[in-house]
């Protein structure tokens, strides 16, 4: 042993330092062998491996399931969704490896948050909200009969620490309706003669999901399926961003006068007033108003003339 130590000293301090780890292992090995009894060499090897290589922290998950952190199917942390007013919408939140965690839906408005659902339960007093779970992992928040106030920021949260979130930004589109005459000119009042054909066009735009439910009404009577009057035709064309619907009423009579309304189900509508003239002209219908204006003008001239005569006398 003396000769060994002398040899190490001759090699210099650097060689000694490099051998320190090896000496520590040998010393540990000797202690273990002298202080413990092992059934075989495999147990000894396992112990040494544990002492030398295994981590000492106790925070490692004990099961494979605990090692998996929940995550969303979607690659992006948010999605933009555009829906038409009056429709129903399902907000999707697909969570993988949820384990014992809980999914919640909240609505954000600035710094304020409104809890809509927690787990399988809905916590909003608004009856239009519904929580649906679709296998294997889709936690859906359904909102029925959307209105303009439903637009905004919705958030799906998983109760990890800290929580992970997935956001849906909901935009509500309100369709725009416009009635024109046969020339394509927007009108609010339209005049026809008895025996002519009433022709009106209704243009519907800003409709993400065009539908066939376009209804024409004369006052309170629906014209789409009216067979009692006869001579009524409705033709609707679906366009890329909406629809165009044309109304034809043949052999117009004075009884066909009144308000005509074009509506997209119960979501939006617009109207025009139709006047069917029996030998009159539109100017004649306004004749009474013109006479009143004429009388006022004449009275003003007379008063002015009388004031001039008074000044000259």
UniProtKB/TrEMBL annotation:
<dbReference type="Pfam" id="PF07686">
    <property type="entry name" value="V-set"/>
</dbReference>
<dbReference type="InterPro" id="IPR013098">
    <property type="entry name" value="Ig_I-set"/>
</dbReference>
<feature type="domain" description="Ig-like">
    <location>
        <begin position="175"/>
        <end position="273"/>
    </location>
</feature>
<dbReference type="InterPro" id="IPR013106">
    <property type="entry name" value="Ig_V-set"/>
</dbReference>
<feature type="domain" description="Ig-like">
    <location>
        <begin position="70"/>
        <end position="167"/>
    </location>
</feature>
<protein>
    <submittedName>
        <fullName>Myotilin-like isoform X1</fullName>
    </submittedName>
</protein>
<keyword id="KW-0472">Membrane</keyword>
<dbReference type="InterPro" id="IPR003598">
    <property type="entry name" value="Ig_sub2"/>
</dbReference>
<dbReference type="GO" id="GO:0050808">
    <property type="term" value="P:synapse organization"/>
</dbReference>
<dbReference type="GO" id="GO:0032589">
    <property type="term" value="C:neuron projection membrane"/>
</dbReference>
<dbReference type="InterPro" id="IPR037448">
    <property type="entry name" value="Zig-8"/>
</dbReference>
<keyword id="KW-0812">Transmembrane</keyword>
<dbReference type="InterPro" id="IPR003599">
    <property type="entry name" value="Ig_sub"/>
</dbReference>
<dbReference type="InterPro" id="IPR007110">
    <property type="entry name" value="Ig-like_dom"/>
</dbReference>
<feature type="transmembrane region" description="Helical">
    <location>
        <begin position="12"/>
        <end position="32"/>
    </location>
</feature>
<dbReference type="InterPro" id="IPR036179">
    <property type="entry name" value="Ig-like_dom_sf"/>
</dbReference>
<dbReference type="InterPro" id="IPR013783">
    <property type="entry name" value="Ig-like_fold"/>
</dbReference>
<keyword id="KW-1133">Transmembrane helix</keyword>
<dbReference type="Pfam" id="PF07679">
    <property type="entry name" value="I-set"/>
</dbReference>
């Amino acid at each position: 042993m003396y000769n060994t130590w002398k040899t190490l000293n001759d090699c210099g301090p650097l060689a000694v330092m490099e051998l320190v780890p090896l000496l520590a292992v040998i010393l540990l090995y000797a202690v273990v062998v002298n202080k413990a009894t092992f059934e075989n060499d495999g147990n000894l090897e396992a112990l040494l491996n544990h002492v030398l290589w295994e981590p000492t922290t106790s925070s490692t998950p004990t099961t494979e399931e605990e090692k998996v952190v929940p995550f969303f199917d979607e690659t992006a942390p948010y999605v933009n969704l555009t829906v038409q007013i009056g429709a129903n919408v399902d907000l999707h939140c697909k969570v993988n490896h949820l384990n014992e965690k809980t999914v919640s839906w909240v609505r954000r408005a600035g710094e304020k948050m409104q809890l809509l659902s927690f787990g399988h339960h809905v916590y909003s007093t608004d009856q239009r909200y519904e929580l649906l779970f679709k296998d294997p992992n889709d936690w859906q928040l359904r909102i029925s009969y959307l209105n303009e106030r439903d637009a905004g920021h919705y958030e799906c949260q998983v109760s990890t620490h800290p929580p992970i979130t997935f956001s849906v930004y909901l935009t509500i589109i309100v369709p725009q309706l416009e009635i024109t005459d046969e020339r394509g000119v927007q009108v609010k009042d339209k005049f026809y003669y008895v025996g002519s054909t009433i022709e009106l066009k209704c243009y519907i735009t800003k409709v993400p999901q065009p539908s066939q439910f376009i209804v024409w009404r004369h006052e309170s009577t629906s014209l789409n399926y009216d067979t009692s009057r006869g001579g009524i035709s409705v033709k609707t064309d679906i366009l890329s961003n909406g629809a165009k619907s044309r109304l034809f009423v043949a052999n117009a009579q004075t009884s066909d006068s009144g308000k005509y309304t074009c509506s997209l189900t119960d979501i939006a509508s617009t109207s025009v007033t139709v006047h069917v003239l029996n030998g009159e002209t539109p100017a004649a219908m306004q004749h009474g108003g013109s006479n009143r204006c004429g009388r006022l003008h004449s009275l003003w001239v007379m008063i002015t003339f009388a004031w001039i005569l008074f000044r000259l006398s």
